[in-house]
Amino acid sequence: MVAARFQIAVDTLGSESPTAQIIAGARDFIDANVDCDLTLIGRSRDFSCFPESRCRIVDCATAVPQHATLLDVLRKKSDSSLRSGLSLLADSSVDALVSTGNSGALMVLGRQIVSTLPGITRPAMIKQFTRTTGSFWMLDLGANLARRRGLLSEFARIGSAYANSIGGLKEAKVALLNIGTEAHKGPQYLRDTAVELARDPQVNFVGYIEAHALFDGIADVVVTDGFTGNVVLKSIEGALGIARQHVQHALASSDDSKHEAVVNKVNSSLNAQTYNGASLVGLRGVIVKCHGNTNHIGIRSALALAKHEIVAQVPQRLEAQFEHLPDLH
Amino acid sequence: MVAARFQIAVDTLGSESPTAQIIAGARDFIDANVDCDLTLIGRSRDFSCFPESRCRIVDCATAVPQHATLLDVLRKKSDSSLRSGLSLLADSSVDALVSTGNSGALMVLGRQIVSTLPGITRPAMIKQFTRTTGSFWMLDLGANLARRRGLLSEFARIGSAYANSIGGLKEAKVALLNIGTEAHKGPQYLRDTAVELARDPQVNFVGYIEAHALFDGIADVVVTDGFTGNVVLKSIEGALGIARQHVQHALASSDDSKHEAVVNKVNSSLNAQTYNGASLVGLRGVIVKCHGNTNHIGIRSALALAKHEIVAQVPQRLEAQFEHLPDLH
Fold it and tell me: Which of A116, A135, A150, B251 is the most exposed, fewest CB within 10 Å of its CB?
């Protein structure tokens, strides 16, 4: 067997999706990636199907409840599976952590247990969206609700470094999400951010982008605040759900014998759009969050993304980008 | 011929869509609605195809440019087609105005020329979205960028009265758009608004809604700030565009002879979602805005919506709802 090069931790607790799906996805992943070993955090009895040689098991029964408030999460010092995973990442016992649980908890404990990279004040949630050709990345998807110029400029640099490393781009085109493309459109903090980014040598700023143009290839990186980004992500998810219903309905009423296959094909394309993992970037380590109710395919792709970020050295690239930079704040 | 009962003005200038489309849509509408006459504002030579008996023509060559700043719009006192239309509405020469031009201009001039209803501080842009069964309305879609508790509570009342009158509902279920459904989620101004709405006897408040659940039938009215609403609207539009591409691709590669028909059916369902008109509510009159680059079908449905709002007496219902109410601010 091949000596392991990457160690990825998986927090299997506190998820909305059945543990069996998480296990199946993790199992698929190590079978397909002989250079990766897993650290499985959860109930050890669930992990019997894994080869001992490829897995470390951290027995833990305590999950962060899906609906715990952030205050509860920070106060509760109890040894939850999430805290264990983040601690393993903080002391470099693992290269990456994949979580299926409470996003808010991941973000606050991530900042508390795994420190932010020098020059970065707040980590951000970033996700890849696939276009008919290529893809784009959007951040922040919910790690920060504040709408401050400096914060958005920081996200622009984080997103740019991320897309350049993981997407293999030279100079990622960065756009600011706004409700119009003219310079005078939108709230003041966005217009101030646009001025700041136009001057930033670290960012290839291409201006404003409207949400209907996200998939048009204008930008590689779309920057927005965490509230708006989270709403956009979920709006796309909801709209694609409606689209699936229309397709099923249209095909069902057409006497096309093969419509089953077409529906499945469309569904898989549309699902991929929303069910991939998102990454918490800006911390000293790779952290990937799965969609709340993902299946084994979602887990496998989240693990693949974590491996990709380790190989692309995303944290190192970010650190290099933020070194010796004038503070934005 | 039937005596006209409704007089609807159409501003045919300053649109991104070809005048021919606007004309065709307006023509379709009066042919199908013998109880409506039109006041056509624009270049009189464009209106030769309309029966004189059914149309008044306001000759005007000056449009508000699509990209004019609001400051320009307010300063420029020149007699634009939009100002003419709003003036006709203000002095009750018409029952409704349908505009195809600059949204920002419509909103600022609407407030300036057509006054707000008593008790309403700011008009809001509202739009109907169709679900597989029934529909829901969302506001504000861009008339106001401020995020104030009082403003959102006002939108909740406006949306509730609008849905009850136009949708024939008894007690519209009103939800606040947020990034989670638990009480502790989201920014403070949203949590304060939720507390306020829970106490408001005028509003049947059902709590928070997340964007992925918009089409799930939880709420009849979804309340959010104008920036977020505008972004949600355009995100849905962009996502449905991507869905259309996936469907076309999936069907093209399936050897289904009838796939043309299916694509068209899906497209029309998805287009209807985004290309319907939106209404500016809260002013003394009915104002419907078409999608920027709509076709004749969009114009016709915008005119149908305007007629529907006149018949449902939306402004009168709103006025009744806001009379003798404690000021929210």
Answer: A135
pTM of the model: 0.92
Least CB–CB distance from B215: residue in A232, A242, A265: A242
Q: Please give the full DSSP string across B209-221, using - where no structure is assigned.
A: E-GGGGGGTS-SE
Other Cβ atoms closer than 10 A to B145 = 17
Per-residue pLDDT of chain A (329 residues; tens, 9 = 90+): 445 589 999 999 988 888 999 999 999 999 999 999 999 999 999 999 999 899 999 999 888 877 778 778 777 767 899 999 999 999 999 999 999 888 888 988 999 999 899 989 999 999 999 887 889 999 999 999 888 889 999 999 999 999 999 999 999 999 999 999 988 889 999 999 999 999 999 999 999 999 999 999 999 999 999 999 999 999 999 998 888 888 888 777 766 566 677 777 777 777 766 667 899 999 999 999 988 778 898 999 999 999 999 999 999 999 988 875 655 54
Q: Which amino acid is at B214?
A: L
Contact A68, A102 (CB under 8 A): yes
**The residue to which tokens 């419907």 are assigned:** B288
CA-nearest residue to B182 within chain A is A67
Strands B124-130 and B278-281: antiparallel
Distance in Å, alpha carbon of A89 to nearest chain B alpha carbon: 27
A254, closest residue in chain B (CA to CA): B262
Residue B50, C-beta contacts closer than 8 angstroms, at least 6 positions apart: B26, B27, B30, B38, B40
CB pairs under 8 A between A and B: 175
> Rounded to whole angstroms, how far apart are CA atoms A114 and A126?
17
Quick one: closest CA in B to A185, which residue? B69
Distances (CA, A) of A141 to A153, A179, A223, B144: 15, 17, 9, 23
Distance from CA of A43 to the nearest CA of B (A): 28
> What secondary structure, in 3-state letters, does B94-144 show?
CCEEEECCCHHHHHHHHHHHCCECCCCCCCEEEEEEECCCCEEEEECCCCC
Say if CB B140 and CB B121 are below 8 A apart: no
Among B186, B235, B269, beta carbon nearest to A236: B235
What ipTM was predicted for this assembly? 0.91
Instruction: Report the relative pairing of strands A6-11 and A55-59 from DSSP bridges.
Output: unpaired
